[in-house]
């Protein structure tokens, strides 16, 4: 009777469990000393241990561990499902994972997908020397950054250590029912792009459905609007009280975390500051590759600044794409205006402060968002402004495609 | 759903003899009243039965047999908390008895206190590792707990089916002694149905004249279609005649063993156990025999029926697996069983007896 359960997992998840067991074994066994303990690396580590128990035919240990897990998270439906299987295996052979006779097929499918998402997410955690490609330069005041991977149903939190992202924690998340890459209002998809939390909604403004708090994101951003994307109300939020988590694809486009995970995350979020990058499959770079990419971009930005100071308008304009757009100007109008303005100046001094360079997720366009505080001085005009640019790689060179006041 | 719940109702309606022997000596009059109460309960006249019991308890407040029966009656009257109090007290006084634990477990299961039910059943099994009822109830309990876990996993509202379950459970308790042990057609060896001595492999309920004993085994485990085809087989059996004879002899021995049990012929019953029989739980042979005489010989009709008989022969040894349905006025059980048998002096004898197939 144990064989069916074992085989079920073996077929799909064998490698996952075997791999994850190596990672978590010390965390789960050493500190507690409990035979069927719950891993302090979180519920997904414990689920991984339970699957390993099952593969090793230690069904009693698996059941005890599952019950311990439920002691911590009484509304963890996936754990209830596994518990049901482990109990049923004592009385009859199992035909499938989630062997609940007459159960609604969609709910079973959701829980199976959650199991796979959690196990894979836990197994595929990044190595120590890997960083998400997107966090090229974090601003000094950005203490943390959030990177979401819709493919893995996972959210990663990074700390800013002198511009270098350092892994802090990761959690299981749910995304839109229809997946990622939102285009239109009501398409039930989660947007992919560079965002930030714009505010926090307290519990008294929310129904139980959203959990204890919610953090709206600035979707659609300038780039989304330029791409003709629309919709609104994309939030990071929690779950209703009667459940620990929701299925991997459940929301209308929001990113949903377990309430306790959102609680943990919210202590790191700075409203209007913390970047929230949503990717449909994170690209991981080694620290060396990351350093190279970051240097190349910082160089391109500094070249642009110095060419601006040189008052050589052609060199300055060479940093702009011919498809460049600003608020109401195209490249030609921009070039004409720059030529006119620069003609009357005897000197220009540009200083960039609080630089942040974030790469846009997705491989269609190689694009980075550059934000800074620009201190501009010249013979006839001084100003200080917060600016945002989008740079795109065209024929191997980084070019500015959008520039505006942030 | 209905099935799994109805199966989780194996409450013991009368305690085994051990209960009364452990109690103070009960006067004959009280014993008679006790029997009347039992009869009233069997007829569903619960409050009258309770009156009788209370009369016994008025003069013998410590009579365990009477208190046990009172617990059963209270459970049937759906006074579950009161019934639980009775059984809890009995488990405290006589922790070596499995029956009060078992009944306590059934009550807890009805109250959906599955963890407590599980603990009680585990105690019953700890006191008597071969106590079949508790094993079966535990299996059913796991199924119920699994169902509850699935409901929580899938957010199924099973409130309605729970209410239904309770009704079924109660009805099952009141009819536990009267219902047939299994809906399939078992090979029946019962006092009321004397087995033919010449051809004991012929099922009493559904007579199929089998051509050979191997065919008969197949017929008993499969429904009518295969039985009909086997009766039409005219060719001699493929197996050598000696093996065929051995099969027949093993089968005959096992069925006779069950028959002796049903007839409460303890001497004949014990005669089927080999001298080197593997006595369970590290008991001595004589202690085990005394216990068996005590239990098998207790008053009241019993019926032991075997079905799905499967015989594996290996020289002078045989492994026999079957489903054993035990039914008395007081309780019934259905469990898998395995006998390891050995041929000695022309007789097949039991060397080992295990619960489970």
UniProtKB/TrEMBL annotation, chain B:
Keywords for this protein: Repeat, Signal, TPR repeat
Gene3D superfamilies for this protein: 3.10.450.50, Tetratricopeptide repeat domain
Signal peptide from the UniProt entry: 1-30
Sequence ranges assigned to domain Cds6 C-terminal in this UniProt record: 250-353
Keyword Nucleotide-binding part of the UniProt annotation: no
UniProt source species: Uliginosibacterium aquaticum
Classification via InterPro entries: Cds6_C, NTF2-like_dom_sf, TPR-like_helical_dom_sf, TPR_rpt, Ycf3/AcsC/BcsC/TPR_MFPF
TPR repeats: 98-131
Pfam families tied to this protein: Cds6_C, TPR_1, TPR_16
Name of the featured protein: Tetratricopeptide repeat protein
């Amino acid at each position: 009777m144990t064989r069916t359960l074992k085989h079920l997992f073996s077929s799909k998840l064998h490698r996952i469990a075997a791999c994850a067991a190596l990672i978590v074994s010390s965390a789960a066994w050493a500190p507690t000393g409990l035979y069927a303990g719950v891993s302090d690396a979180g519920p997904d580590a414990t689920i991984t241990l339970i699957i390993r128990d099952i593969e090793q035919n230690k069904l009693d240990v698996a059941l005890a561990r599952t019950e311990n897990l439920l002691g911590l998270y009484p509304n963890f439906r996936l754990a209830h499902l596994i518990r049901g299987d482990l109990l049923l295996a004592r009385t009859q052979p199992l035909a499938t994972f989630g062997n609940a006779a007459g159960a609604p097929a969609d709910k079973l499918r959701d829980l199976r997908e959650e199991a796979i998402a959690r196990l894979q997410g836990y197994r595929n955690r990044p190595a120590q020397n890997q960083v998400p490609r997107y966090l090229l330069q974090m601003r000094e005041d950005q203490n943390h950054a959030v990177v979401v991977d819709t493919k893995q149903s996972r959210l990663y939190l990074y700390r800013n250590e002198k511009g270098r992202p350092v892994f802090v924690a990761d959690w299981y998340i749910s995304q839109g029912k229809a997946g990622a890459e939102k285009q239109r209002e009501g398409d039930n998809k989660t947007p992919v792009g560079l965002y930030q939390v714009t505010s926090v909604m307290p519990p008294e403004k929310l129904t139980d459905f959203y959990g204890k708090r919610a953090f709206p994101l600035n979707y659609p951003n300038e780039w989304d609007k330029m791409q003709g994307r629309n919709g609104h109300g994309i939030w990071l939020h929690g779950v209703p009280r009667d459940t620990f988590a929701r299925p991997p694809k459940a929301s209308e486009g929001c990113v949903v975390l377990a309430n306790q995970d959102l609680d943990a995350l919210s202590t790191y979020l700075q409203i209007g500051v913390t970047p929230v990058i949503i990717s449909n499959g994170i690209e991981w770079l080694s620290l060396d590759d990351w350093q190279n990419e970051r240097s190349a971009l910082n160089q391109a930005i500094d070249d642009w600044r110095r060419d601006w100071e040189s008052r050589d308008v052609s060199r300055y304009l060479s940093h702009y794409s011919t498809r460049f757009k600003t608020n109401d100007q195209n490249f030609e109008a921009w070039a004409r205006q720059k030529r006119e303005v620069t003609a009357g100046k005897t000197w220009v001094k540009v200083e960039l402060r609080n630089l942040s360079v974030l790469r846009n997720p997705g491989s269609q366009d190689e694009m980075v968002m550059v934000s800074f505080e620009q201190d501009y001085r010249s013979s006839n005009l001084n100003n200080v402004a917060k600016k945002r640019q989008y740079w795109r790689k065209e024929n191997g060179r980084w070019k500015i495609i959008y520039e505006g006041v942030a | 759903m209905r099935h799994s719940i109805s199966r989780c109702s194996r409450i013991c309606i009368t305690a085994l003899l051990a209960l009364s022997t452990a109690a103070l000596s009960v006067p004959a009059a009280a014993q008679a009243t006790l029997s009347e109460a039992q009869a009233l309960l069997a007829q569903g006249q619960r409050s009258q039965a309770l009156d009788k019991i209370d009369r016994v308890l008025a003069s013998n407040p410590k009579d365990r047999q009477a208190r046990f029966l009172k617990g059963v009656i209270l459970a049937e009257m759906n006074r579950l908390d009161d019934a639980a109090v009775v059984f809890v007290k009995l488990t405290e006084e006589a922790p070596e008895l499995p029956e009060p634990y078992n009944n306590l477990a059934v009550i807890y299961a009805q109250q959906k206190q599955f963890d407590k039910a599980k603990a009680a059943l585990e105690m019953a099994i700890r006191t008597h590792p071969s106590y079949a009822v508790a094993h079966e109830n535990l299996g059913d309990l796991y199924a119920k707990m699994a169902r509850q876990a699935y409901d929580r996993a899938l957010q199924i509202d099973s409130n309605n089916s729970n209410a239904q379950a309770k009704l079924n459970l109660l009805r099952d308790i009141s009819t536990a002694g009267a219902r047939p042990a299994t809906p399939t057609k078992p090979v029946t060896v019962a006092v009321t149905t004397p087995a033919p001595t010449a051809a004991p492999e012929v099922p009493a309920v559904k007579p199929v004249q089998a051509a050979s004993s191997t065919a008969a085994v197949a017929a008993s485990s499969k429904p009518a279609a295969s039985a009909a085809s086997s009766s039409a087989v005219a060719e001699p059996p493929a197996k050598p005649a000696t093996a065929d004879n051995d099969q027949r002899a093993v089968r005959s021995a096992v069925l006779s063993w069950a028959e002796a049990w049903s007839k409460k012929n303890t001497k004949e019953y014990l005669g089927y156990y080999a001298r080197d029989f593997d006595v369970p739980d590290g008991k001595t042979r004589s202690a085990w025999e005394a216990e068996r005489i005590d239990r098998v010989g207790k008053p009241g009709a019993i019926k032991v029926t075997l079905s799905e008989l499967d015989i594996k022969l290996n020289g002078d040894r045989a492994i026999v697996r079957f489903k054993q349905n035990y039914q008395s006025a007081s309780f019934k059980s259905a469990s898998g069983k395995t006998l390891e048998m050995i041929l000695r002096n022309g007789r097949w004898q039991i060397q080992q007896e295990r619960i489970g197939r």
